[in-house]
Amino acid sequence: MTLPDDAVRHLRRVLREPELPGDRYLLEEPVGSGGMGTVYRAYDRALDRHVALKVLRPDVADPGAAARLEREARILARLEHPGIVPVHDAGILADGRVFYVMKLVRGERLERLAARATLTELLRTFLRVCETVGFAHARGVVHRDLKPSNVMVGSFGEVLVLDWGIARVMREEPEGSHPGELPGGGGAPQDPARDADTAPGAILGTPGFMAPEQANGWSHLVDARTDVYALGAILRDLVGRRDGGRVAPRPLASVWTRALAPEPADRYPSAEALAADLTRFLDGEPVLAHRERLSERAGRLFRKYQTAIILVLTYLAIRFLFLALRGL
Amino acid sequence: MPATYPGTRLSLILAAREIDPEVQRAAWEVLVSVYWRPVYGRLRLKWRAQPADAEDLAQEFFARAMERGFFDDYDPAKARFRTFLRLCLDRFAAKARREERRLKRGGGLVHLPLDFAGVERELDTALHQGSEADEDEWFDREWVRSLFSDAVEALRTSCAGTPREIRFRVFERYDLLPAGDGDRPSYRALAQELGLPGTQITNHLAWARRELRALVLERLRVLSGSDAEVREEAAALLGAGGG
User: Fold this and answer.
1) Residue B47 clears pLDDT 60, i.e. is over it
2) N or C: which end of chain A has fewer CB within 10 A?
3) Mutate to test the interface with A, among B145, B174, B188, B231 (most CBs of A within 10 A)
4) Which residue did the predictor score with more confidence, B228 or B170?
């Protein structure tokens, strides 16, 4: 027999699909593919719901990729936060590839939101990204691949930070502990064996969003401020996309400029500090990263107290008019 | 009838003259079963041979390759086996053209029972709009089709007359339909049609696909020149390692 074209195409597609152990998950269709893995929408028969199933791409020759995917699942499992996709299950395919099952996220990528959101909406969304990243830092995890396409915004405005495949575990946190902030100033990961792909000289990340210490492979200098740099790059990118080349408010530009400082010591010390400065901007307060001129200060105060100023001026104008009319 | 696969790499068997003739014959069957369609198509498309001439040249190519050890010089480090075979075929065809050789059917050589008329029907369009890139693409596409067809036939044979026949039936009714995905029956409809519980459709399809994957990989291992080539072909065809 000779197979028709349609049958050959179909067979090639179905034979590419991962062969899952057992019959709990029924694969439906691929919904995304990245540098390391493919994400499928799948149906979980046991719990009668749709889930996302991430599996290592079979054509990925990098021997460290399987370990990274496995580590990503473990990192996600330890980061329980509304801004991080929960992992439900993990396992090994018949061909030895690692997979894990997580919540199926519905929404759109951050850069798409940027095209139509108001500046305030966009900055409030960005603050939730900072909050999520800050939470991960508090748990001893640096993301190292933050960029707009790794942030999903759900239909109810919920923000999810995705793709923790090259995250770096700076220290282990005991179960149930309430750790403090990730120490700045660099430092080796607590257990180098867990971080084999981040050996000195290894460069993983996305150009344009990578801090100099990451782009140069100086992994001993990577810490929370490496993510602060990426957050600054995201902020600049989002505002740039939205405003299409128009000049952004100088205090806002100063926020990302400080986050993007080449020297880690010159950046905000944490994602929370960046978020706090951005909140000041949103609230019409002076931004720490920006020394404002008198005219800027006047403009900011005018914008902040715009309603009250207009009311007072209106009152004064009416009063003046009234007095003027009486004097006639 | 699908080819019976020798246990080791075909290219090595073809090159090893001292090997058991039975094993070598089996290896040739494998080669012919997967390559005759691409070979015939290339003779028609690239060399513009008339159907009867292309048929004779294809038969002669396999026969001469076996007699004269065309593949003895194959070096896996230099090219894929598929590319090497195509070069051998082009050299053979060029020589035949220079000598203006027109073999009579049979030509004193073993005549392989191959369905050239079937290929001819599919070549019609390609013959009218072919470029050199199309010729290579057609060769590769037919190689893939032959590989999968041979593996499916092997699966059918292994299931025939056994309790696994129903599994192949499910696979045939769902995966082998000449239709787009939208035209396939639902699992429920297929279960009703074949009188099976709905869950069995999933299980039977999973089994048949697993078997087919193994059969395709087995053929790739045999037909490739090196482990690297197997991995490369497997990734391109199935998105899987050659194991």
Assistant:
1) yes
2) C
3) B145
4) B170
Which candidate from A14, A15, A58 shows the least CB-CB separation from B241?
A: A58
Cα angle value A83/A75/A99 (rounded, 5°): 100
CB < 8 Å to B175, chain A: 7, 10-11, 14
Hey, what are A206's tokens?
């996305």
Per-domain residue ranges of chain A: 14-103, 107-169+180-292, 296-327
pTM, two decimal places = 0.60
Is B199 within 8 Å of chain A by CB?
yes
Q: How many Å apart are CA A261 and CA A116, to the nearest integer? A: 29
- Structure tokens given for A70: 């496995």
Domain A14-103: give its CATH architecture.
2-Layer Sandwich (3.30)
Q: How is residue B162 written in tokens?
A: 């056994």
Q: Which of B177, B179, B239 sits opposite A59 (nearest CB)?
A: B239
pLDDT score for A173: 56
Nearest by CB to residue A8, choosing from B37, B118, B144, is B144
Most confident of A185-199, A255-269, B115-129, B184-198: A255-269
**What residues in A contact B213, CB-CB < 8 Å?**
15, 19
Please tell me the predicted confidence (pLDDT) of residue A196.
41
The CATH fold of domain A107-169+180-292: Transferase(Phosphotransferase); domain 1 (1.10.510)
The per-residue pLDDT of chain B, averaged, comes to 81
Structure tokens at A30: 């691929």
Percent of chain B with pLDDT over 70: 78
DSSP string, A4-60: -HHHHHHHHHHHHS---SSSSEEEEEEEEE-SSEEEEEEEETTTTEEEEEEEE-TT-
Quickly state the pLDDT bin for B87 (edges 50, 70, 90): very high
A-interface mutation test, from B137, B213, B215, B216, most A Cβ less than 10 A away: B213
Rounded to whole angstroms, the Cα distance separating A268 from A260 reads 9
**Choice between A106 and A229, residue whose per-residue pLDDT is larger:** A229
Helices B132-159 + B198-223 axis angle, to 10 = 120
Identify the CA nearest to A253 among candidates A289, A229, A228. Answer: A289
Instruction: Reply yes or no on whether the pLDDT at B103 is more than 50.
Output: no
Asked if ipTM goes beyond 0.90, one says no
How far does chain B reach from its first CA to its final CA, in angstroms? 26
| Alpha helices, DSSP H, located in chain B | 10-15, 21-45, 51-68, 81-98, 116-129, 132-159, 165-175, 187-194, 198-223, 227-238
Question: Which of A328, A326, A284 shows the shortest CA–CA distance to A306?
Answer: A284
Q: Which amino acid is present at B87? A: L
- Type of residue found at B219: R
Residues of B in contact with A94 (CB under 8 A): 210
Q: Which residues contact B129 (CB under 8 A, 6 or more apart)?
A: none
